[in-house]
Amino acid sequence: MNNFTFYSPTYFVFGKEEENNTGKYVKRFGGKKVLIHFGGGSVVRSGLLERVKNSLQEQGIASVELGGVKPNPRSGLVYEGIELCRKENVDFVLAVGGGSTIDSAKAIAAGTVYEGDFWDFYMGKPVTKALPVGTILTIAAAGSEGSPDSVITKEEGMLKRGASGEAYRPVFSILNPALTQTLPAYQTACGITDIMAHLFERYFTNTRDVEVTDRVIEGLLMTMIHEAPKVIENPNDYDARANIMWAGMMAHNNAVGVGRSQDWTSHDIEHELSALYDCAHGAGLAVTLPANFTYVMHHDVMRFAKVAVRVWGCQMDFDHPEVTAKAGIEALRRFFISIGMPKNFAELGAKEED
Ligand code: NZQ
Ligand code: ZN
Q: Which residues on neighbouring strands pair with residue 137, listed in sequence order?
């Protein structure tokens, strides 16, 4: 195991109706003037935004609003948010939505207190300072509710790039699985795929003897395989939603990635796809993960065989471990198709000439 530091200070609040306590948590973390940031309208339609605003009002906390975050969030709205925060003396950014909204909120939080262009952070400058960010998560997927990362697309050139820094860890995140029950099956499946991708990107490592994180990742993957069909079948299955939501956080706050090298090739390729074709991140990963694994499995065939046996229950072929490795990749491919994910580039809308 490699040396590592791990600091994950987010205060997690998990369970039914906890969004009604938002005001209390904003107050606890020092917010007096809040930017409420949200997406294309799901939180308006579900009544969540109204409940959050009421909760802030109950605590006497002032707020301004900025909606309109698109999936694969764009830099244009980030610049707008930075301007608004400066004009209104905002001291706390509250994201109400999915990974796109949270990532946009993080970018605004860092950009507001930075004299240069916020895009510098997405060109490699570490994020060391930002306004505090709180989140109310509505989709289990990106893991941004616990991660030190944010991914933004710059319209000029459609560059999709990530930024990182401990200042990007939310100070609190409210996770109420019931809020994810309004998700269409396709978005639920995209989220499930992304969570599994975050686990695989960490599992496939060159670092030896990392049994503790290997075993936790395997357990999380098996949980996803077990719970996913339940929520696709019945979107109101609270307990299955709850297991998936917490797995999504655990998959990406890096508790299972410490002390080991990580891959992220499938993600890097996917980010180019969602930048070019504006496909859902999870849908892109359903295509890039099995394809990339087929390409790289010979680099460490025993590790691919190990996950095939331990997670997918494949029979180990000691004479031909590549047969077992391939069976595991096939099981993954079939699983993604079974939950309604695309199976190839064409289904994502990718064009041959690109
Ligand atoms: O915009 P609204 O109207 O809210 O609709 C959203 C959006 O259309 C909808 N939705 C979310 N919650 C809902 C709901 N619809 C009904 N009921 C609900 N409860 O779902 C759609 C997708 O939302 P989005 O926020 O885009 O999803 P996700 O959480 O998958 O975020 C994807 C983004 O996160 C980035 C991805 O690249 C992509 O840009 N990632 C961020 C990471 C991070 N910050 O750590 C890591 C990931 O690997 C990923 O790259
Ligand atoms: Zn991802």
A: 97, 175
Strands 159-164 and 149-154: antiparallel
Residues with CB under 6 A from ligand 1: 39-43, 71-72, 97-101, 103, 138-139, 141-144, 147, 149-151, 179-180, 182-183, 187, 190-191, 194, 252, 267, 281-282
246 C-beta neighbours (distance < 10 Å), count = 17
Pocket test for ligand 1, best of 106, 133, 138, 200 (most atoms within 8 A of CB): 138
Round to whole Å and give the CA distance between 178 and 60: 27
**Using one digit for the tens of pLDDT, what is the confidence trace for 147-188?**
999 999 999 988 999 999 999 999 999 999 999 999 999 999
The predicted model gives 9-23 an average pLDDT of 98
Q: Is the entire prediction scored with pTM above 0.90?
A: yes
> Taking a C-beta distance cutoff of 8 angstroms, is the pair 78, 84 a contact?
no
